Amino acid sequence: MTAPAIGLEANADLLYRTMLGRRHWTTTELVGRLGWSTDRLSAVLDDLSREGLVAESAEQLGALRAVEPCLALPAMVARRFRGPVRDGLPPADEVARFVAMNQPPAGRVGERSRFEGLDDVASFVERMAATVRGEVVQLVPTFVPGSFEFSRQVAEAVLRRGATLRIVWSSKVLEEPAAAEHAKWLAVRWSAPRVVDHVPMRVTLVDGATAVLHDDEGCAGVIQSTRALDSLTLIADRLWRNGVEVGNTQVHADARSGGARNEMVLRLLADGLTDDAIARRIGVSVRTVRNDVAGAMAGLRARSRFQAGVRAVQLGLV
What we know:
Pfam families: GerE. The protein is α+β, with helices and mostly antiparallel strands and 318 residues long.
Protein backbone atom coordinates (compact mmCIF):
# COMPACT_ATOMS: atom_id res chain seq x y z
CA MET A 1 0.00 0.00 0.00
CA THR A 2 1.32 3.45 -0.92
CA ALA A 3 2.30 5.55 2.10
CA PRO A 4 -0.05 8.51 2.64
CA ALA A 5 1.23 11.87 1.41
CA ILE A 6 1.24 14.41 4.23
CA GLY A 7 2.58 17.47 2.43
CA LEU A 8 6.22 17.34 3.48
CA GLU A 9 9.40 17.46 1.41
CA ALA A 10 10.92 13.97 0.98
CA ASN A 11 13.68 14.32 3.59
CA ALA A 12 11.35 15.90 6.14
CA ASP A 13 8.77 13.21 5.48
CA LEU A 14 11.32 10.44 6.06
CA LEU A 15 12.65 12.03 9.24
CA TYR A 16 9.21 12.60 10.74
CA ARG A 17 8.10 9.04 10.04
CA THR A 18 11.36 7.75 11.54
CA MET A 19 10.94 9.80 14.71
CA LEU A 20 7.44 8.47 15.23
CA GLY A 21 8.98 5.05 15.82
CA ARG A 22 10.44 5.96 19.22
CA ARG A 23 9.62 8.09 22.24
CA HIS A 24 12.53 10.49 21.67
CA TRP A 25 15.83 10.73 19.77
CA THR A 26 19.20 12.41 20.09
CA THR A 27 20.75 13.89 16.96
CA THR A 28 23.52 11.28 17.18
CA GLU A 29 20.95 8.48 17.13
CA LEU A 30 19.18 10.00 14.12
CA VAL A 31 22.43 10.46 12.20
CA GLY A 32 23.24 6.81 12.84
CA ARG A 33 19.78 5.62 11.83
CA LEU A 34 19.49 7.65 8.63
CA GLY A 35 23.13 7.85 7.57
CA TRP A 36 22.90 11.61 7.10
CA SER A 37 25.47 14.26 7.88
CA THR A 38 24.91 16.39 10.98
CA ASP A 39 24.38 19.49 8.81
CA ARG A 40 21.76 17.74 6.68
CA LEU A 41 19.94 16.48 9.75
CA SER A 42 19.98 19.91 11.40
CA ALA A 43 18.49 21.54 8.31
CA VAL A 44 15.66 19.03 8.09
CA LEU A 45 14.99 19.22 11.83
CA ASP A 46 14.69 23.00 11.46
CA ASP A 47 12.05 22.46 8.78
CA LEU A 48 10.09 20.06 10.99
CA SER A 49 10.35 22.43 13.93
CA ARG A 50 8.92 25.30 11.88
CA GLU A 51 6.03 23.02 10.89
CA GLY A 52 5.40 22.15 14.55
CA LEU A 53 6.12 18.45 13.99
CA VAL A 54 8.96 18.02 16.48
CA ALA A 55 9.31 19.18 20.07
CA GLU A 56 11.91 19.25 22.81
CA SER A 57 12.02 16.16 25.00
CA ALA A 58 10.84 16.68 28.57
CA GLU A 59 12.82 13.73 29.92
CA GLN A 60 16.20 13.75 28.13
CA LEU A 61 18.20 16.95 27.79
CA GLY A 62 18.98 17.76 24.16
CA ALA A 63 16.71 15.04 22.76
CA LEU A 64 13.75 15.64 20.45
CA ARG A 65 10.46 13.85 19.88
CA ALA A 66 7.83 13.74 17.16
CA VAL A 67 4.57 15.50 17.98
CA GLU A 68 1.56 13.20 17.61
CA PRO A 69 0.18 13.27 14.02
CA CYS A 70 -3.41 13.74 15.17
CA LEU A 71 -2.34 17.05 16.70
CA ALA A 72 0.61 18.15 14.56
CA LEU A 73 -0.77 17.60 11.06
CA PRO A 74 -4.04 19.54 11.48
CA ALA A 75 -2.04 22.41 13.00
CA MET A 76 0.37 22.34 10.06
CA VAL A 77 -2.47 22.39 7.55
CA ALA A 78 -4.20 25.21 9.44
CA ARG A 79 -1.06 27.36 9.26
CA ARG A 80 -0.66 26.69 5.56
CA PHE A 81 -4.31 27.42 4.94
CA ARG A 82 -4.03 30.79 6.69
CA GLY A 83 -0.88 31.71 4.77
CA PRO A 84 -0.74 34.08 1.79
CA VAL A 85 -0.19 31.21 -0.66
CA ARG A 86 -2.96 28.69 -0.27
CA ASP A 87 -1.37 25.76 -2.00
CA GLY A 88 0.69 22.82 -0.86
CA LEU A 89 -2.18 21.44 1.22
CA PRO A 90 -1.97 17.66 1.48
CA PRO A 91 -5.10 15.74 0.40
CA ALA A 92 -7.56 15.51 3.28
CA ASP A 93 -8.10 11.77 2.91
CA GLU A 94 -4.33 11.14 2.92
CA VAL A 95 -3.87 13.12 6.13
CA ALA A 96 -6.75 11.25 7.75
CA ARG A 97 -5.28 7.90 6.66
CA PHE A 98 -1.84 8.77 8.01
CA VAL A 99 -3.30 9.83 11.36
CA ALA A 100 -5.34 6.63 11.57
CA MET A 101 -2.28 4.50 10.78
CA ASN A 102 -0.35 6.16 13.62
CA GLN A 103 -3.02 5.95 16.29
CA PRO A 104 -2.27 3.72 19.30
CA PRO A 105 -4.08 0.37 19.59
CA ALA A 106 -7.77 0.64 20.33
CA GLY A 107 -8.71 0.64 23.97
CA ARG A 108 -10.20 2.75 26.72
CA VAL A 109 -8.23 5.77 27.82
CA GLY A 110 -8.33 4.49 31.37
CA GLU A 111 -6.34 1.41 30.41
CA ARG A 112 -3.20 3.61 30.46
CA SER A 113 -2.35 2.88 34.07
CA ARG A 114 1.35 3.70 33.61
CA PHE A 115 3.62 5.63 31.26
CA GLU A 116 7.14 4.99 30.03
CA GLY A 117 8.25 8.55 30.77
CA LEU A 118 7.36 12.22 30.44
CA ASP A 119 7.47 12.12 26.65
CA ASP A 120 4.98 9.24 26.69
CA VAL A 121 2.73 11.39 28.88
CA ALA A 122 3.07 14.28 26.42
CA SER A 123 2.00 12.06 23.51
CA PHE A 124 -1.01 10.89 25.50
CA VAL A 125 -2.07 14.45 26.32
CA GLU A 126 -1.59 15.48 22.68
CA ARG A 127 -4.00 12.75 21.60
CA MET A 128 -6.56 13.93 24.16
CA ALA A 129 -6.14 17.57 23.09
CA ALA A 130 -6.81 16.56 19.49
CA THR A 131 -10.25 15.22 20.45
CA VAL A 132 -11.31 17.57 23.28
CA ARG A 133 -14.94 18.69 23.16
CA GLY A 134 -15.39 21.24 25.90
CA GLU A 135 -12.52 22.19 28.17
CA VAL A 136 -8.93 21.52 29.20
CA VAL A 137 -7.82 22.59 32.68
CA GLN A 138 -4.16 22.59 33.72
CA LEU A 139 -2.70 23.08 37.18
CA VAL A 140 1.04 23.69 36.91
CA PRO A 141 3.23 24.05 40.04
CA THR A 142 6.63 24.24 38.30
CA PHE A 143 8.15 24.94 34.90
CA VAL A 144 9.44 21.82 33.11
CA PRO A 145 11.32 22.45 29.81
CA GLY A 146 9.68 20.57 26.97
CA SER A 147 6.51 19.95 28.98
CA PHE A 148 3.19 19.75 27.16
CA GLU A 149 1.81 22.40 29.56
CA PHE A 150 3.90 24.97 27.67
CA SER A 151 3.31 23.57 24.19
CA ARG A 152 1.82 25.91 21.61
CA GLN A 153 0.78 22.88 19.58
CA VAL A 154 -1.38 21.58 22.43
CA ALA A 155 -2.91 25.00 23.13
CA GLU A 156 -3.61 25.62 19.43
CA ALA A 157 -5.31 22.24 19.09
CA VAL A 158 -7.61 22.92 22.03
CA LEU A 159 -8.54 26.42 20.91
CA ARG A 160 -8.94 25.46 17.25
CA ARG A 161 -11.61 22.96 18.31
CA GLY A 162 -13.53 25.75 20.03
CA ALA A 163 -12.79 24.37 23.51
CA THR A 164 -11.87 26.40 26.58
CA LEU A 165 -8.34 26.38 27.99
CA ARG A 166 -8.03 27.27 31.69
CA ILE A 167 -4.50 27.33 33.10
CA VAL A 168 -3.38 28.03 36.68
CA TRP A 169 0.32 28.46 37.43
CA SER A 170 2.25 28.77 40.64
CA SER A 171 3.79 32.25 40.85
CA LYS A 172 7.32 30.84 40.54
CA VAL A 173 6.51 29.54 37.04
CA LEU A 174 6.58 33.13 35.76
CA GLU A 175 10.19 33.46 36.84
CA GLU A 176 11.09 31.45 33.74
CA PRO A 177 11.40 33.65 30.60
CA ALA A 178 9.97 30.89 28.39
CA ALA A 179 6.86 30.69 30.58
CA ALA A 180 6.41 34.47 30.58
CA GLU A 181 6.60 34.49 26.78
CA HIS A 182 4.09 31.64 26.60
CA ALA A 183 1.72 33.61 28.84
CA LYS A 184 1.81 36.56 26.41
CA TRP A 185 1.13 34.22 23.51
CA LEU A 186 -1.87 32.73 25.33
CA ALA A 187 -3.24 36.14 26.32
CA VAL A 188 -3.59 37.23 22.70
CA ARG A 189 -5.70 34.10 22.19
CA TRP A 190 -8.10 34.93 25.04
CA SER A 191 -6.56 32.22 27.24
CA ALA A 192 -4.21 34.03 29.61
CA PRO A 193 -3.06 31.85 32.53
CA ARG A 194 -3.90 32.76 36.10
CA VAL A 195 -1.35 32.76 38.90
CA VAL A 196 -1.64 31.81 42.58
CA ASP A 197 1.01 31.61 45.26
CA HIS A 198 0.94 27.82 45.42
CA VAL A 199 -0.41 25.09 43.14
CA PRO A 200 -0.61 21.85 45.17
CA MET A 201 -0.51 19.37 42.30
CA ARG A 202 0.36 18.93 38.64
CA VAL A 203 -2.74 17.81 36.78
CA THR A 204 -4.43 18.13 33.39
CA LEU A 205 -8.20 17.57 33.19
CA VAL A 206 -9.92 17.03 29.86
CA ASP A 207 -13.68 17.46 29.47
CA GLY A 208 -14.14 16.63 33.14
CA ALA A 209 -13.85 12.96 32.20
CA THR A 210 -10.12 12.18 32.22
CA ALA A 211 -7.20 13.51 34.23
CA VAL A 212 -3.46 13.03 34.05
CA LEU A 213 -2.05 13.45 37.56
CA HIS A 214 1.65 13.58 38.45
CA ASP A 215 2.85 12.42 41.85
CA ASP A 216 5.63 13.97 43.94
CA GLU A 217 8.25 11.91 42.11
CA GLY A 218 7.07 13.09 38.69
CA CYS A 219 5.38 9.84 37.68
CA ALA A 220 2.00 10.24 35.99
CA GLY A 221 -1.19 8.22 35.96
CA VAL A 222 -4.61 8.44 34.36
CA ILE A 223 -7.65 9.09 36.55
CA GLN A 224 -11.24 8.43 35.47
CA SER A 225 -12.92 7.78 38.81
CA THR A 226 -15.92 10.09 39.14
CA ARG A 227 -15.21 10.83 42.80
CA ALA A 228 -11.55 11.64 42.15
CA LEU A 229 -12.40 13.78 39.13
CA ASP A 230 -14.99 15.72 41.12
CA SER A 231 -12.39 16.45 43.80
CA LEU A 232 -9.82 17.59 41.24
CA THR A 233 -12.40 19.79 39.55
CA LEU A 234 -13.31 21.47 42.85
CA ILE A 235 -9.64 22.19 43.54
CA ALA A 236 -9.11 23.54 40.01
CA ASP A 237 -12.18 25.76 40.21
CA ARG A 238 -11.09 27.22 43.55
CA LEU A 239 -7.59 27.97 42.29
CA TRP A 240 -9.00 29.52 39.11
CA ARG A 241 -11.31 31.82 41.08
CA ASN A 242 -8.46 32.91 43.34
CA GLY A 243 -5.94 33.36 40.55
CA VAL A 244 -4.74 36.63 39.07
CA GLU A 245 -4.62 36.86 35.29
CA VAL A 246 -1.10 37.13 33.92
CA GLY A 247 0.09 40.32 32.27
CA ASN A 248 -1.77 42.67 29.99
CA THR A 249 -4.90 40.88 28.84
CA GLN A 250 -6.02 43.50 26.34
CA VAL A 251 -6.53 41.65 23.08
CA HIS A 252 -5.10 43.41 20.05
CA ALA A 253 -7.66 44.30 17.40
CA ASP A 254 -5.86 42.31 14.74
CA ALA A 255 -6.12 39.14 16.87
CA ARG A 256 -9.80 39.01 15.98
CA SER A 257 -9.11 39.28 12.28
CA GLY A 258 -7.26 37.20 9.74
CA GLY A 259 -6.52 33.65 10.78
CA ALA A 260 -8.67 33.64 13.94
CA ARG A 261 -11.73 34.84 12.02
CA ASN A 262 -11.11 32.44 9.14
CA GLU A 263 -11.06 29.50 11.52
CA MET A 264 -14.34 30.63 13.12
CA VAL A 265 -15.95 31.02 9.69
CA LEU A 266 -14.82 27.51 8.76
CA ARG A 267 -16.21 26.09 11.99
CA LEU A 268 -19.61 27.73 11.49
CA LEU A 269 -19.59 26.76 7.82
CA ALA A 270 -19.06 23.14 8.83
CA ASP A 271 -22.02 23.51 11.20
CA GLY A 272 -24.20 24.46 8.22
CA LEU A 273 -24.81 28.14 9.03
CA THR A 274 -25.66 30.59 6.25
CA ASP A 275 -23.49 33.61 5.42
CA ASP A 276 -25.98 35.90 7.19
CA ALA A 277 -25.99 33.74 10.32
CA ILE A 278 -22.20 33.54 10.38
CA ALA A 279 -21.92 37.32 9.98
CA ARG A 280 -24.27 37.89 12.93
CA ARG A 281 -22.45 35.33 15.07
CA ILE A 282 -18.96 36.81 14.69
CA GLY A 283 -19.92 40.46 14.24
CA VAL A 284 -18.67 41.21 10.71
CA SER A 285 -20.32 42.12 7.43
CA VAL A 286 -21.90 39.52 5.15
CA ARG A 287 -19.45 40.62 2.43
CA THR A 288 -16.52 39.76 4.71
CA VAL A 289 -17.99 36.33 5.39
CA ARG A 290 -18.57 35.70 1.69
CA ASN A 291 -14.98 36.63 0.93
CA ASP A 292 -13.77 34.26 3.65
CA VAL A 293 -16.01 31.46 2.36
CA ALA A 294 -14.78 32.00 -1.20
CA GLY A 295 -11.19 31.92 0.04
CA ALA A 296 -11.89 28.75 2.01
CA MET A 297 -13.38 27.01 -1.02
CA ALA A 298 -10.39 28.00 -3.16
CA GLY A 299 -7.84 27.02 -0.52
CA LEU A 300 -9.49 23.66 0.11
CA ARG A 301 -10.16 23.05 -3.59
CA ALA A 302 -13.85 22.61 -2.80
CA ARG A 303 -16.64 22.97 -5.33
CA SER A 304 -19.30 23.81 -2.77
CA ARG A 305 -19.74 25.24 0.71
CA PHE A 306 -20.63 21.79 1.99
CA GLN A 307 -17.50 20.23 0.51
CA ALA A 308 -15.37 23.01 2.04
CA GLY A 309 -16.87 22.25 5.45
CA VAL A 310 -16.26 18.53 5.08
CA ARG A 311 -12.64 19.00 4.00
CA ALA A 312 -12.04 21.47 6.84
CA VAL A 313 -13.20 18.80 9.30
CA GLN A 314 -11.10 16.09 7.62
CA LEU A 315 -7.98 18.25 7.79
CA GLY A 316 -8.58 19.18 11.41
CA LEU A 317 -9.03 22.88 10.64
CA VAL A 318 -12.20 22.94 12.79
